[in-house]
Amino acid sequence: MTPEPRVIFEDADLLVVDKPGNLVCYGASRPGQRSLADWTREHGIATPRFLNRLDRETSGAMLVTKNERAAKILGKQMLRHEIEKEYVAICFGALESERGVIEQPIAVATGAPVYTKRVVDAAGKPCVTEFEVEQRLKDFTVVRLKPRTGRAHQLRVHMAWFGHPIVGDKVYGADERWYLEFIKNGVTEEMLRCLLMARQALHAAVLSARHPTTQEQLRWESPLPDDMRQFIMEHTN
User: Fold this and answer.
1) What is the pTM of this model?
2) Which pLDDT score, from 0 to 100, does residue 1 have?
3) CATH class name, domain 6-234
4) In sequence order, which ranges of the chain are alpha helices (DSSP H)?
5) Active-site pick, 18, 55, 169, 227
6) How many other C-beta atoms lie within 10 A of the C-beta of residue 115?
7) Is 11 an annotated catalytic residue?
8) How, if at all, do strands 6-10 and 14-19 pair?
9) Residue ranges of the chain whose pLDDT lies below 50
10) pLDDT (0 to 100) of residue 162
11) Where are the domains of the chain?
């Protein structure tokens, strides 16, 4: 069962929530499933506006505005790339460099079995990701990722292109057909043997923005979830 979201910060304008993995932001498609939008409405926010949206399997901090004024102010910050985001990912293999920048354009893949798939493509939109190694494990690397652009699937696409796909990624990992298998049958034992985690090991660890009313620069952190911490413990040299 998916854990409940957790409130990190809340006032009259903003809600920062720690989204668990395997929770969609909007429109849960399966009977009995809730979305984060459902949860925020139950929390008393009639019209939740998510400033940063996370993939269903990605966990971590999400910024929700409670009113139209806050949404407009924070939306402008987002357009000016003033909202800082940091992610932690567990990737296959050992990165050669301790830090660096991946600057590769991304476009929607053509003819892929997964219609939402993106690829590095010279004709795509500019994308920039900074990376820094946090911990080296046996056969894996824990990496801190800072997206400087906000394209769909950017971090997953960039790390796969870089030769170090994110553990558990059903689209950009070993074989995108695992995603189609997951849609039909959920997580299977064979899938776990290949991908090693039931979800992609990607976590939104830090959000930073200026408060729309006080103008104070605020920083919110989300601790690493249990499944990623457990994986790291099991693969520490």
Assistant:
1) 0.94
2) 63
3) alpha beta
4) 36-42, 68-79, 154-161, 177-185, 189-195, 226-234
5) 55
6) 8
7) no
8) antiparallel
9) none
10) 97
11) 6-234
| Radius of gyration of the chain, Cα coordinates, nearest whole angstrom | 18
* pLDDT of amino acid 29: 55
Q: State the CB neighbour count (10 A cutoff) for residue 23.
A: 22
Per-residue pLDDT reduced to its tens digit, 71-123: 999 999 998 989 999 999 999 999 999 999 999 999 999 988 898 999 999 99
From the list 89, 84, 204, the residue with the least C-alpha distance to 143 is 89
Distance, in Å, from the CA atom of 220 to the CA atom of 232, rounded to the nearest integer, reads 23
pLDDT at 27: 73
Q: Quickly list DSSP for 207-232.
A: EEEE-TTT--EEEEE-PPPHHHHHHH
* Three-class DSSP category at 6: strand
Give the pLDDT of residue 152: 92
The CA distance from 54 to 5, in Å, is: 13
Answer for the pair 35, 25: CB distance below 8 angstroms, yes or no. yes
Provide the pLDDT for residue 30.
Answer: 55
Helical (H) or strand (E) element with 145: strand 140-147
Instruction: Label residues 27-44 b or e (16+ Cβ within 10 Å = b).
Output: ebeeeeeebbbbbbeeee
Token code pair at residue 89: 């990912």
CA distances from 173 to 70, 85, 145, 168 (A): 38, 23, 18, 7
Rounded to 5 degrees, φ, ψ at 123 are -90, 0
Question: How far is the C-alpha of 79 from the C-alpha of 73, rounded, in Å?
Answer: 10
End-to-end CA distance of the chain: 31
Q: What is the pLDDT of residue 47?
A: 86
Q: For residues 118 and 157, is the Cβ–Cβ distance under 8 A? A: yes
Q: How long a stretch of residues is the chain?
A: 237
